[in-house]
Automatic annotation (TrEMBL):
Keyword set, alphabetical order: Stress response
PROSITE patterns membership: SHSP
Cited PANTHER family: PTHR47062, SMALL HEAT SHOCK PROTEIN IBPA
SUPFAM superfamilies: HSP20-like chaperones
Membership in a protein family: Belongs to the small heat shock protein (HSP20) family.
Signal sequence range: none
One Pfam short name: HSP20
Record protein name field: Hsp20 family protein
Domain called SHSP: residue spans: 34-145
């Protein structure tokens, strides 16, 4: 199977959106580097509501003390560390990955991690967007030009 690296032309976005150059750069980065990231562990990102999200990661075989979640700035890092095995095992078939991982997610502005739970081999991370009052929509009164001069 052939993979074509097609970089999208985001010029129309630059023309019609003001102040979204960071978003466009993130989209370009994702398009260019999306094939370099490993698919382990698999994960889902879910929209639960207008400002609520959930990340579900399949972390079968990891206990709570082998998982670490760190949120710093606009990055969310999920790390799984497996201790080294003391005894040598002889596998006839090994289909279960027993390796550690680092998975980094780029978070949008004002997105906060509010909780995490491990259940049945699935790590669920809950996120909420909390907009500051200054960022919420507000109505602007329209005055006549005569009122502005006075």
């Amino acid at each position: 199977m052939r993979h074509f690296n097609i970089t999208p032309d985001l010029t129309p976005l630059y023309r019609s959106a003001i102040g979204f150059d960071r978003l466009a750069k993130l989209a370009e980065h994702a398009a260019n580097n999306g094939s370099n990231s490993s698919g382990y562990p698999p994960y889902n990102i879910e929209l639960l509501g207008e400002n609520r999200y959930s990340i579900t990661m399949a972390v079968a075989g990891f206990s709570m003390n082998e998982l670490e979640i760190t949120s710093e700035g606009d990055k969310l890092l999920v790390k799984g560390t497996k201790p080294t095995q003391k005894e040598e095992r002889k596998y006839l078939h090994q289909g279960i990955a027993e390796r550690g991982f680092d998975r980094t997610f780029q978070l949008a502005e004002h997105l906060k991690v509010v909780g995490a739970a491990l259940e049945n081999g699935l790590l669920n991370i809950e996120l909420v967007r909390e907009l500051p009052e200054a960022m919420k929509p507000r109505k602007i009164a329209i005055n006549s030009s005569q009122n502005m001069i006075e």
